[in-house]
Design a protein that fits this description.
heterodimer, A: 112 residues, mainly beta, six-stranded mixed β-sheet, four-stranded antiparallel β-sheet, 0% helix, B: 107 residues, seven-stranded mixed β-sheet, 50% strand
């Protein structure tokens, strides 16, 4: 299992970013996927879940209405569109599959 | 949401010690629990899934047990590479949750 995140960076409050996660080494289209984040010096926080066929999508209350998860099974990829970003969204964002490893993460910094 | 409570928050131990970390769920999660190890600046590493299944490549000194609402991670003989922070995670609910973490430090 290999997961490679990209798309992080520095963005101003109120701005947007789109994170991507490229998956390989397993049959992507039969597995649900998650995004998890970790603010500097803090614990792990689950952000969002998407089922294998995108039929079921869930968000943490902290991001609901601002973040959108999606996937493209033809491209073995999952995405996180992040809008209306706040300072408290500053974190390392990880793509994760249950019962498998995680990617190395992509850093999102929200600051003016 | 399902709450996971880990204890202790910090554990001081020596090389060779037997170490046990507990994770309690606010409601039954059957065996849908994973344990991760994280070192500073690194991504979490899966150790145990389905409460007691050892991830491939993980040393056999790590073991997991439990079901329902009470789970434990045991390191049978602590090694220098094991000083890290450990997290439990439930995946019974679509709304995944993590424990707050247990830092294993050198005594």
């Amino acid at each position: 299992v290999q997961l490679v995140e990209s798309g992080g960076g520095l963005v101003k409050p109120g701005g947007s970013l789109r994170l991507s996660c490229a998956a390989s080494g397993f049959t992507f289209n039969i597995y649900a996927m998650n995004w998890v984040r970790q603010a500097p010096g803090k614990g792990l926080e689950w952000v969002s879940f998407i089922s294998s066929s995108s039929d079921n999508i869930y968000y943490a209350d902290s991001v609901k209405g601002r973040f959108t998860i999606s996937r493209d099974n033809a491209k073995n990829s999952v995405y996180l569109q992040m809008n209306s970003l706040r300072a408290e969204d500053t974190a390392m964002y990880y793509c994760a599959r249950d019962e498998a490893g995680w990617g190395q993460g992509t850093l999102v910094t929200v600051s003016s | 949401d399902i709450q996971l409570t880990q204890s202790p928050s910090t554990l001081s131990a020596s090389v060779g010690d037997r170490v046990t970390i507990t994770c309690r769920a606010s409601q039954s999660i059957s065996s849908w629990l994973a344990w991760y190890q994280q070192k500073p600046g690194k991504a979490p590493k899966l150790l145990i899934y389905k409460a007691s299944s050892l991830e491939s490549g993980v040393p056999s000194r790590f073991s997991g047990s439990g079901s329902g609402t009470e789970f434990t991670l045991t390191i049978s003989s602590l090694q220098p590479d094991d000083f890290a922070t450990y997290y439990c995670q439930q995946y019974d609910s679509y709304f995944r949750t993590f424990g707050q973490g247990t830092k294993v430090e050198m005594k």
